[in-house]
Amino acid sequence: MTPTRSSFFAILAILSLSFFSATESRRLKRISPQISSRNPSVNLDSFQVPLSNGSASLPSPTAGLSLKAITLGRGTQNYTCAAGSTAEPVTIGAKADLLDATPLLPLFPSSESQAILNLLPEYLVSFDFATIKNSTIPVLGHHIFDAAGVPTFDLGSIGLLKAKKIANITAPPTACKGANGKGDGAVDWLALTDAPGSVNLKEVYRVHTAGGKAPKSCEGGAARHIEVQYASQYWFFG
User: Fold this and answer.
1) Phi/psi class of residue 93: alpha, beta or left (left: φ > 0; alpha: ψ in -120 to 50)?
2) What is the pLDDT of residues 120-173, one digit of tens each?
């Protein structure tokens, strides 16, 4: 479904409400508790994880699993370049805060809620971390790569996922390339399943990515670490 004009205004209104100073954030929490806390009345079963980029698809979630959380990831994809290298940068992981999308869902027009949700990463990638930390959207968890290089998602009381990739597809050609629409492109969409050490969570999907892709070449020079800003949706099943 193509979002209507009102949907775009809804996105702008939500972002305006959500990203305030710390003082405004506290005030908004008093007058708008539906934004500042997780809303258990939201029926996540009415939302479907996006699987297709238009030309290829990720595998469906395993039968019997239920959707536990929809989050908006905001962080960096991390790479390294060896001294003098002109090869592609080598990926070494990622780090992101996982913002809880649940409080936003009741604010969307019901007929277009998923279409609006799918647009949010391209807006979110242009917000700096300080602004996000002072927002009224709660941080539900964190994404890191552990010391062994295992993708790790810590959602607190919801669960912990130590993950391994089972499938990937490229982001659509129209995906946001990075902050303010500038960058080297959007990272792949992923399907990941659980690895040893997981608790209560079984699968996660990274979809509707914005930014995060490394430059095509290290371009020689000194050894260096590269952090590329990105945002995406993360859908958790357990």
Assistant:
1) left
2) 899 899 888 777 777 778 899 999 999 999 999 999 999 999 999 999 999 999
The closest of 207, 177, 173 to 190, measured between CA atoms, is 207
CA gap 177, 210 in Å, rounded: 6
* Contact present, 191 and 166 (Cβ < 8 Å): yes
DSSP H or E segment with residue 233? strand 224-237
Question: Over 50: is that where the pLDDT of 227 sits?
Answer: yes
User: What is this structure's pTM?
Assistant: 0.88
pLDDT at 165: 98
Question: Is 223 within 8 Å of 206 (Cβ atoms)?
Answer: no
Contacts of residue 126, defined as CB under 8 A and 6 or more positions apart, other chains included, come to 179, 180
Nearest alpha carbon to residue 54 among 169, 191, 187:
169
Residue 186, CA distances (Å) to 39, 114, 210 in order: 30, 20, 5
**Encoding tokens for residue 31?**
């007058």
Q: State both tokens at 185.
A: 């492109």
Cα dist. 105→62, 85, 89 in Å?
A: 24, 46, 37
Per the structure block, which two tokens stand in for 111?
């007929």
Q: How many CB atoms lie within 10 A of CB 203?
A: 22
